[in-house]
Amino acid sequence: MTMRNQPTARHTRLGSELRKLREAAGKPAKEVAGLLGASSAHMSQIEAGSSAINEERLRRLAAHCACTDEELIEALVAMATERTRGWWDEYKGVLPQVNLDVAEAEHHAKFLREVVITHVPGLLQTPDYARAVFGYMRPELPESELAHRVDHRMKRRAVIEGDNPTPYQTIIHEFALRLRVADRQASIAQLRRILDEIERGHATVRVIPTDQDGFAGAGASMMYMGGPLAQLDTGLRDTPGGTMFIDAEAQLKRLRTLFRKVEKASLEPTASRDFIHHLTKEL
After folding, report:
1. How far apart are CA 271 and CA 274, in angstroms?
2. pTM, two decimal places
């Protein structure tokens, strides 16, 4: 079993799912560790994502825990055995690990749903917009890291623009569309970029107008990523302490409910496109 110096969010999620299997079966960690020929400490490392597990041991663990969900087992095996390096790996040691984790999670998602209130979604940002956002951070980033962050954000767009684009729906508040994070020309270019992505079929965009009655979701910003099956979905929320990955079913259910509520307060896609087009002329 290979040890990892810094497990990714995907490694951590795999370990979490293995722990859930064990706990659902009522099996103590020591018992399962013995089955795998590992110590209790090593079992804890597996469940924390800091130690790898191969396919044979994973299948033994699933059988011992009486898991008969073949879809789930195959999905977990894929998570455990995948060795493909992604484009985000070139930023390892250059950007915070969470930036890489978000890109990896987007890459593996079957669909993406996002709600943003104060900024244009990262997947739709122009380089000038992204630079302005990152440049506003305090303490200020050195130019080298600022450039890397902008470049990383632009490369994330591949998930919705590649040969096999991931279905992407986003709900954006009018406030985010009007907010000038840079200057007027950058704002117009940003709105045009959103319109381009809509026209190319890369994004389904809905807008919440500022005069919409009954919208109390100012804190609703979030990303929801579809997994290979529903119980492996992932949520993302930004908190004062940083980006938080969410995998508990109760919390995922709340995010799904939140998305539906926000969606009801938004304009239909066609009306949203026209709304954004009108804003480009108004600016």
Report:
1. 5
2. 0.94
